[in-house]
Amino acid sequence: METPKTLAEAVQGYLETVRSARSENTARAYENALNAFLSVLKEHWLEADAPVSQLTEDGMGWMLAYLKVFSAATERLYLQAVKGFYKYLDAERLADVNLSRLSALIQQRARHPGQRLPQFPRDEIESLLEFVNNFTNNLSDNFSEKLRALRDRAFLLTLADTGLRVHEACGLRRGDMDWNEGRAVVIGKGDKQAVVRFSSRALGALRDYLAARAALDGASGRPLPSLPLFARHDKGAGKKVKPMTTTTGRNIVAERVRQALGEEAAGRITPHSFRHYFVTTVLRASGNLKLAQALARHASIQVTQRYAHLSDDELDRGYHEIFEKPQV
C-alpha cells in the first residue's frame, strides 16, 4: 500500500495492521470505532479526504465528548481503537502527534467506572451440571437425540471444569486433545496458545460422546485429528461432521437451562457463567490467586482478584468470631 495521504487512507492502513495482528472480532470492532471517529471529525469540518497531517489531538477530545452517550464498555473499546490509530500515525510519521497530550486528554475526560463484581448463580449451575450428568440414565433410542444429549453433557462439563471460553471450546479439534495427560492445546484470547486441563468427569463425558459418534467420524473420510471435538447434530449437518458454532454453544446452554431449571431461569446462565464458576471453584478450593490466574489464563491478576470476594470464607469466619462471640 502506498503511503497514506488522506485520513481515509490512513484509517485503512491502520485497520490493515489490526487485521494482520488481531482477531476478526477485534478488527471488526476497531473498524466500527474508526468509522465513528471519521464521522466525528467530519462534524468538526475535517473530511475523510483531508490530508492526514491535519489531524491533531483535538480529534480525541471530540471523540471523548461523542462517546458520553454510549456505555462505559463501548467508550473504552472505541478509545482503545482511536488511541491505537494515533500511535500508528506517530509510528509511521504520518502526523505530528503529541502522545503525552493524547494520554492526558483520555485520563482527564474518559469515564472511570467502578469495578463490577462477577455475578452468577452458582447453585443453579451445579443443579444444571447434575441434571446433564444424569443424561446417561435415560438416553433416547433416537440416534441424533442420543448424540445431542451426550454432546451437551460433555460440552457443559467441559465449560465448567476447564474455564474455556465458548469460542475456544467450539474451536477444539480431536487432535488438540492429549488423552493421556488430560489436556488440550487451545488458541485463546489474543491468538495466544495455551494448555488447558480437563477433569476426569469431563474426559469421561467426552469419551462417551466420541464413542457414540465413532460411525459418523469414520464415515467422514477425514483424519480423526482434524475433526471437531464438538460437532453439530441437527438436520442441517445431516451425517457430516461439522464443527459447532458459538451460536450453537449458547443455544445448548439455553436449552438445557430451561430443561433443568424451568423457563424462569432462562437467561440467568450463559456460556460465560461457567467461566466465572470455574475461577471461583479454583479459588474456593485453593485460595491461590496465582493458580487461579494461570488456570483461567487471565492476562492480569487484577482480573482474577475480582473473584476473590466470592471465595474468602476465612474473612467470614474471622468476622463472626470477632463480632458474634457470646458476651461474657
Question: If you had to describe this structure to a student in words, what would you say it looks like?
Answer:
By secondary structure, the chain is mainly α. It folds into two domains: 7-109, DNA polymerase, domain 1 (Orthogonal Bundle); 122-310, Orthogonal Bundle (hpI Integrase, Chain A), CATH 1.10.443. The protein is built from 15 helices and three strands. The chain has helices at residues 7-21, 24-43, 58-66, 72-91, 99-109, 122-133, 143-162, 166-170, 200-212, 214-219, 246-261, 271-286, 289-296, 301-305, 313-323; strands spanning 177-178, 183-187, 193-197. The protein has a three-stranded antiparallel β-sheet with strand order 1-2-3, with no helix packed on it. Strand 1 and strand 2 (183-187) form a beta hairpin. Helix 6 crosses helix 11 and helix 12 (271-286) packs antiparallel against helix 13. The radius of gyration is 25 Å and the shape is globular.
Ordered list of secondary-structure elements with their pairings:
Elements (H helix, E strand, L loop, with lengths): L6 H15 L2 H20 L14 H9 L5 H20 L7 H11 L12 H12 L9 H20 L3 H5 L6 E2 L4 E5 L5 E5 L2 H13 L1 H6 L26 H16 L9 H16 L2 H8 L4 H5 L7 H11 L5
Antiparallel strand pairs: 1-2, 2-3
Helix pairs in contact: 1-2, 2-4, 3-5, 4-5, 6-11, 7-9, 7-12, 12-13
